[in-house]
């Protein structure tokens, strides 16, 4: 339950007049008095509470007072109490006996409050562990870290009000950086750690700090990693034998087939993946709770964003593929074995190209080449000249490359002056077009696929545009989509797509169908292409039909070819 509007409104006004610290202490004291708890923070400020308020309102009001920019700079996303309770239950339910629990990025204590409430229901064991000076830690078996001093103070106050124990019982809640300071063995590591690209300015630390993190968490602090990953690494260091972790992370991590995921898969494999839709934690990001323990396991309990549950068997590859129940396909090779893939134009060259772009008007001089963006690509079709194209913030009707320019620009053009397949870089299904004459060139966010010697480009085009291959790609990498639909297409993901062995006549028929479909739209030919490709990839009749149904639902986003005023963007 969220606090009534008048409470955060009062808090915002009070914070301006009396300061954030005084306002939050006044709110905590008022909630304590309403609940008949010990009021450890007295304040003359009048707080508009009309009835008994839940302790969770302390953290929720504090969240409302932190400016959005401040939250983004810290990578902080606060947790609704009901979602914290769900993750905590999934984590703690299998554990027995007195437990030592830590939240290494606790904020105002939402997960620790949820842990206390869950374990309180168990009765005697936890009540004994929470009995004060005779408990496991000399205080209570709840520990937490946060770099925000006021958040830590509010977490201690919230737990004191909730439990009836004095503040000093929660000395295990400390101001500090858990990534550097946390130590010990815990039965559960829980929380919603900060998100954000660790190499971006808003979440980066000093070079010395970054080097220390790479030293402490070598499997996790590699390349352009998400900051939340470091807390997964911390969990592997803090978990006692038999312990469990329950941590929130961006759903994009499920598609992150990198060393950290392979390390976790072998040694700390998730037992459950609970996905939440965009906005569930107040941020424009899809999130997932990763719940697991030491060692491997055969199956994973999956709860999708709509609330549907299923149990899937683990297999190698991106976790998102398992969570989606992605299609199992048969292939002895991958796309990288039969084709070279490169970007149409690197970002730096694209910015050099931008001021040199011109419009083709009437008869263009010999040698001018159309600029093709990802938005100008549909399946078997390039819509250049049919609708407006946006390239790096400017709109064009028929943009063309210059005939001379910087070396990087001309090198990108020269590399594409050959027959090739162009693939859109942001889409809901794979969309590929064969530039048979080498008369166009892609720019940022388009991929160029050049078949190797002996590989029929029309066959390659057919596979790239089939339903099953799209489903394979998006079941592996769709976790990186903000909306759950349009997804960035990555080179590595394309290179790893399966390439099957074709039975007699299959390859030739697929190539023939691709020629037909590039020349004209034919629903019958399209359906035949989907079914033959699915069969070549080892899919049964029912599975092929499921792939086509999935594909049609996503392909409905495709533009109406008659809508000539739509913008196709780079």
Second rung of CATH, namely the architecture of the largest domain: 3-Layer(aba) Sandwich
Radius of gyration: 28 Å
Question: Ends: how far apart?
Answer: 42 Å
Query: How much beta, percentage-wise?
Result: 15-25%
Global shape? elongated
Overall pLDDT: 87
Catalogue the unreliable spans: 131-139, 559-570
CATH fold-level assignment of the largest domain: Rossmann fold
Our count of helices gives: 21
**Residues in helices, as a percent range:** 25-40%
Q: How many discrete domains?
A: 2
Largest sheet: 9 strands, mixed
CATH superfamily of the largest domain: Vaccinia Virus protein VP39
Strands ordered across the widest β-sheet? 3-2-1-4-5-7-6-8-9
Give the number of DSSP strands. 26
Specify the structural class.
alpha/beta
Descriptive notes:
- The protein is an alpha/beta fold and 570 residues long.
- It folds into two domains: 66-323, Rossmann fold (3-Layer(aba) Sandwich); 333-569, Adenine-n6-DNA-methyltransferase TaqI, Chain A, domain 2 (Alpha-Beta Complex), CATH 3.90.220.10.
- Helix content is 37%, strand content 18%.
- The protein contains 21 helices and 26 strands.
- The strands form eight sheets. The protein has a nine-stranded mixed β-sheet with strand order 3-2-1-4-5-7-6-8-9. A four-stranded antiparallel β-sheet has the order 11-23-19-21. Strands 17-16-26 form a three-stranded mixed β-sheet, with no helix packed on it.
- Strand 14 and strand 15 (381-382) form a beta hairpin.
- It is elongated, with a radius of gyration of 28 Å.
- It starts with 5 loop residues before the first helix and ends with a strand.
- Mean pLDDT is 87; it is low at 131-139 and 559-570.
């Amino acid at each position: 339950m969220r606090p009534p509007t008048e409470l955060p409104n009062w808090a915002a006004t009070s914070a301006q007049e009396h300061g954030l610290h005084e306002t939050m202490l006044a709110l905590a004291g008022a909630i304590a008095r309403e609940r008949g708890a010990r009021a450890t923070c007295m304040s003359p400020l009048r707080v508009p509470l009309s009835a008994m308020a839940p302790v969770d309102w302390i953290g929720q009001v504090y969240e409302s007072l932190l400016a959005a920019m401040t939250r983004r700079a810290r990578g902080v996303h606060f947790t609704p109490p009901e979602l914290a309770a769900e993750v905590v239950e999934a984590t703690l339910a299998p554990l027995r006996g007195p437990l030592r629990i830590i939240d290494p990025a606790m904020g105002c204590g939402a997960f620790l409050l949820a842990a206390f409430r869950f374990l309180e229901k168990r009765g005697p064991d936890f009540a004994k562990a929470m009995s004060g000076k005779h408990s496991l830690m000399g205080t209570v078996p709840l520990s937490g870290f946060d770099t925000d001093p006021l958040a830590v103070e509010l977490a201690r106050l919230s737990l004191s009000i909730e439990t009836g124990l004095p503040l000093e019982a929660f000395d295990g809640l400390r101001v500090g950086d858990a990534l550097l300071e946390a130590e010990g063995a815990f039965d559960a590591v829980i929380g919603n750690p900060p998100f954000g690209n660790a190499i971006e300015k808003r979440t980066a630390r000093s070079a010395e700090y970054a080097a220390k993190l790479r030293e402490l968490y070598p499997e996790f602090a590699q390349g352009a990693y998400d900051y939340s990953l470091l807390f997964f690494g911390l969990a592997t260091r803090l978990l006692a034998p038999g312990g469990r972790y329950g941590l929130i992370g961006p759903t994009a991590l499920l598609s992150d087939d990198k060393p950290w995921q392979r390390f976790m898969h072998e040694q700390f494999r998730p037992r459950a993946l609970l996905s939440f839709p965009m906005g569930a934690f107040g941020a424009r990001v899809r999130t997932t709770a990763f719940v697991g323990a030491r060692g491997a396991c055969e199956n994973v309990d999956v709860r999708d964003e709509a609330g549907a549950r299923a149990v899937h068997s683990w297999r190698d590859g991106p976790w998102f593929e398992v969570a989606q129940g992605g299609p199992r396909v048969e292939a002895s090779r991958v796309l990288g074995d039969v084709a070279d893939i490169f970007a149409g134009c690197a970002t730096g060259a694209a910015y050099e190209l931008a001021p040199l772009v011109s419009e083709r008007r009437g008869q263009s001089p010999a040698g001018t080449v159309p600029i093709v963006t990802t938005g100008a690509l549909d399946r078997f079709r390039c819509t250049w000249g049919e609708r407006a194209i946006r390239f790096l913030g400017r709109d064009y009707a028929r943009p063309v490359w210059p005939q001379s320019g910087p070396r990087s620009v001309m090198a990108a053009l020269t590399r594409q002056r050959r027959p090739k397949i162009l693939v859109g870089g942001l889409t809901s299904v794979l969309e590929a077009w064969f530039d048979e004459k080498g008369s166009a060139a892609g720019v940022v966010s388009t991929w160029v696929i050049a078949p190797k010697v002996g590989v029929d480009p029309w066959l390659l085009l057919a596979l790239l545009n089939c339903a099953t291959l799209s489903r394979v790609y998006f079941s592996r990498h769709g976790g990186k989509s903000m909306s759950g639909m349009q997804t960035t297409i990555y080179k590595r993901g394309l290179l790893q797509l399966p390439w099957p062995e074709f039975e007699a006549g299959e390859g030739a028929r697929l190539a023939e169908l691709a020629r037909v479909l590039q020349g004209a739209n034919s629903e019958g030919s399209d359906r035949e292409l989907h079914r033959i490709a699915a069969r070549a990839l080892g899919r049964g009749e029912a599975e092929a039909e499921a792939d086509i149904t999935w594909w049609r639902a996503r392909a409905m986003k495709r533009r109406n070819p008659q809508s000539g005023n739509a913008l196709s963007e780079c």
